[in-house]
Automatic annotation (TrEMBL):
This is FAD-dependent oxidoreductase. Keywords: 4Fe-4S, Iron, Iron-sulfur, Metal-binding, Oxidoreductase. Transmembrane segments: none annotated. InterPro entries: FAD/NAD-bd_sf, HdrA-like. The keyword Magnesium does not apply. The lineage of its organism: Bacteria, Pseudomonadati, Pseudomonadota, Alphaproteobacteria, Hyphomicrobiales. It holds the Pfam family FAD_oxidored.
Length: 421
């Protein structure tokens, strides 16, 4: 049996997605000794583990793409470009600007970022316990196949998506009650290969095929227009998102049910897709290690970003980043609504949306950052997660290194690191 590991870091970041990477890199650039923990064998978050192959939130909506996120997020895009990926803004069917992704490039780019900024990475590890000290967290227990190991730190960032650190630390958690505690449905994007090089995707024909299917079955396809179908950079494969299922996003029983159901639906949908010209030899090239979770439990922050602030495009003196993706709320499988951001096309995210009551050295990044039900539909996307993660990492490093946690100091450091505030 290996000996238990005990080690101290200035900052420990849990979760290796966009928010977690940005937090770890930002803190390391301030001189903090940083540990980044990820449960999978790779970094990249939903882009890598759920095949959510589009960065949303990097740009404001409009006739031309206007940057809403810079700093570490923009640096990641430049790294992806160096690896040969086209990171040009693409206008989606919703009228919003997105960046299509290659998951292997994302994994490698994240690895390289951690190496060049001296971030210690621990993969295949889950946070399974928390030790508190007074009004803060003292250490986390990380569990891998060899056992459980304790790591202490002066500050922590929860970028887990499911707010695991917050939950284990006893932070007040909630699920939006306005939908009778039903969180937004999950989606399983699939990667489609085998499409003829000269094939043209015929949405009208697919809509007709789905309508014929739906007319005679119980298990109807909710996205009757075929859903999202976009060609990917590099491979030329297609990214297809047409499977939405309700899950709590937390329990093994619920996740097992939707994972297996999603695979059944993927193969059913493939048979329909093959009826399109040029798609006769299409096949499922990949699904992610897990279904894409939009929402589960969330912590209450000191000051949640609100839907009202987004509708007004509210600017704030304590802003640490821009929320520019529209309020995108998936009310049920196949049913989503978009509400554009007001004002100048973005709203400021307050620093206190990255902090919780009662845990002075715990910070939030990514989709666990504080937001009410409406604002969550904007704040949760990966482009914006780079912004909240960047700020959370700066705040955590200020706390850990004894530099004081003032809005002015955090904003000054974010500007120094190239963030857009």
């Amino acid at each position: 049996m290996p000996e238990a590991m005990t080690e101290h870091f200035d900052v420990i970041v849990a979760g290796g997605g966009a928010g977690g990477l940005a937090a770890a890199v930002a803190a390391a650039r301030m001189g903090a000794r940083v540990l980044l923990v990820e449960r999978y064998g790779f970094l990249g978050g939903a882009a890598a583990n759920s095949l959510v192959l589009a960065y949303c939130g990097f740009f404001q909506k409009g006739e031309t793409p206007v940057s809403a996120v810079e700093g570490i997020g923009a640096e990641v895009l430049r790294d992806l470009a160096e690896l040969g990926q086209d990171v040009s803004a693409v206008r989606s069917r919703s009228g919003n600007w997105i960046i299509m992704l290659d998951p292997e490039a994302v994994k490698f780019a994240f690895d390289r970022f951690c190496t060049k900024t001296a971030v210690t990475v621990l993969l295949h590890s889950r946070v399974t316990g928390i030790a508190t000290a007074g009004e803060g967290i003292a250490s986390v227990t990380l569990t891998d196949h060899a056992g459980s190991h304790e790591f202490s730190a002066s500050a922590f960032v929860d970028a887990t998506g499911e707010a695991t650190v917050c939950h284990l630390a006893g932070v007040e958690m909630f699920v939006d009650a306005t939908r009778d505690d039903n969180v937004q449905p999950a989606s399983m994007p699939i990667r489609i290969g085998g499409v003829a090089p000269n094939a043209v995707f015929d949405r009208n024909l697919l809509t007709q095929v789905i309508a014929e299917h739906n007319s005679g079955v119980v298990d109807m396809i909710p996205r009757a227009d075929g859903g999202v179908m976009m060609q990917l950079p590099a491979s030329g494969d297609y990214w297809w998102m047409n499977i939405d299922l309700v899950t709590d996003g937390l329990t093994g029983a619920s996740l097992t049910h939707v994972e297996q159901q999603a695979r059944r639906e993927a193969w059913r949908n493939l048979a329909l897709l093959r009826k399109l010209p040029g798609f006769e030899n299409a096949y499922i090239a990949a699904t992610g290690p897990q279904i894409g979770i939009r929402e589960s439990r969330r912590p209450r922050s000191l000051h949640d970003l609100t839907g009202e602030a987004l509708s007004r495009g509210t600017r704030r003196p304590d802003g640490i980043g821009h929320a520019a993706w529209p309020i995108e709320v998936h009310e049920a499988p196949g049913r989503a609504r978009f509400v554009d951001i007001g004002g100048d096309g973005f709203a400021d995210i307050p620093l206190d949306a990255l902090r919780v009551s009662g845990k002075h050295n715990l910070f939030l990044a990514g989709r666990v950052a504080g937001a009410d039900e409406a604002a969550y539909g904007s704040l949760r996307v990966m482009g914006t997660a780079f912004a909240t993660g960047h700020a959370a990492g700066v705040a955590a490093a200020h706390s850990a290194l004894g530099k004081g946690l003032s809005v002015t100091a955090v904003r000054r450091e974010l500007a120094k690191q190239g963030a857009l505030i």
